[in-house]
Write a structure and sequence with these properties.
2 copies of one chain form a homodimer. Helix content of chain A is 19%, strand content 24%. Chain A is α+β, with helices and mostly antiparallel strands. The first copy, chain A, folds into 2 domains: 7-117 and 229-254, PSTPO5379-like, CATH 3.40.1640; 129-227, 2-Layer Sandwich (PSTPO5379-like fold).
């Protein structure tokens, strides 16, 4: 099966059930997005959480309550069916996964689309620094850290980061490059020793897959859009729906540095 | 009376009632902000309005419901007393003005602070392009336009712009310079003929004061943080509290291009 070249094509395939996997490398040059859907009652507090934590949660679009079409970033799309895989989070239960959330969408549901690191992954690869997880055909490794987010309402908890190993020289280039993509998490939040930000075992990510770290490389950490999944656990909201890690919403926006 | 050099000093004077005038030129180099206070019930829709209209409404800070301290941009400040003059908007009535809104602040009040053009006025002046209203000691002229904002919930209506006359050559410099201040309305929304954006009489601004336009100059228009005052009229919210035009909240943030 060929890789879809546009967001519209990927979304149609996800809707038809013919694309069920991760979206890394799909629709090159088009911005992908993290998804968070919650009841309107919690939408202001979550918006506030994003405003206070712009590195993990750069807001690309927010829908009108009850309307599943993100008309500013993907006219005609349906957020209930156009992602390959969703996670449904309920208080006290492990998250479950599903390919369609039509039955969970309510008249007061509000969807947030947050910028994703795939945008600068693409820019890094174009600059000759191919992220290791792309090279190894894996999902990017993600870790819960000991760094706390700025709380808002019931939303509070650890910053989640993604990690790309590279030489110190490449890390310098990658830092300057990613800083130009503030809607895609911007510059790294940490370089080097994982223990400094509370990561005990770099070989065991909390989300995604481990990747090889070669001799002479350092881990470089970026704020990650999976952070909301780590801060909703104690918020008591039933349910919160997100994308499954690595299975993003693909927009029509063209990736551009700012 | 000397002009206060810091946001903290201006806020203390406003609180004590010893500074009652406009804030242009106050605390040079510190970001000033437009203020909008509304009940939590409307806070999500207004946040959405700002997200969809980032040029007139660049969000600097949003308070927790009921807490009048904008702790991220001015720790210790009190938004109920620290502006020199407020406007209180009630449906069907002309706005009234007051120097203290303590009695109107409720446990569910939410305050939004939005970036202000005084930031790039300062940068323009530093670049040798002194905005005419500063030169003439007036409030910047502001106009309701025929350009519609992107609506959200009950918030809909015209874009309000501020105007600075300058030579075409200076307009080019000012455009490039202001584009580097996205949290201060960014680049102009229009240059030249006022009629194109529905302004009938450039000599009669809807807010602020008229300024001299010299031969060879063109009017240059920027999105303005007074826009919310033009879109709340039909929203049926009782009350909405804003700053009085020109009487801004002075933050501790240092003006910096991005």
């Amino acid at each position: 099966m060929s890789v879809p070249e546009t967001g519209m094509r990927l979304r149609a395939m996800a809707r038809a059930g013919t694309w069920t996997g991760p979206t890394a490398g799909v629709a090159p040059g088009h911005a992908q997005a993290n998804l968070v859907i919650l009841p309107r009652e919690f939408a202001f507090d979550f918006f506030l959480f994003c405003q206070r934590n712009p590195k993990p949660c750069p807001v690309l679009d927010v829908t009108d309550p009850g309307n599943p079409e993100p008309s500013r970033v993907a006219p005609g799309a349906d957020l209930r069916r156009d992602l390959p895989l969703y996670r449904v989070h309920r208080p006290g239960l492990p998250p479950s996964e599903t390919a369609d959330i039509t039955d969970l969408w309510k008249s007061d549901s509000v969807a947030f689309l947050l910028g994703c690191s795939f945008t600068f992954d693409h820019a890094l690869a174009a600059a000759g620094i191919v992220p290791r997880h792309m090279e190894e055909g894996r999902n990017v490794p993600m870790y819960r850290t000991s760094v706390q987010t700025a709380p808002a309402g019931p939303f509070r908890g650890p910053l989640v980061v993604s990690m790309r190993p590279m030489t110190p020289r490449d890390a310098e280039t990658a830092t300057a490059l990613s800083a130009r993509f503030p809607r895609s998490h911007g510059a790294p939040v940490h370089l080097g020793d994982p223990a400094t930000i509370g990561i005990r075992d770099i070989g065991r990510p909390d989300y995604g897959d481990p990747v090889t770290i070669r001799p002479g490389e350092i881990p470089v950490f970026w704020a990650c859009g999976v952070t909301p999944q780590a801060v909703i656990a104690d918020a008591g909201i039933d349910p919160v729906i997100t994308h499954a890690p690595g299975h993003m919403f693909v927009t029509d926006l063209v990736d551009m540095p700012e």
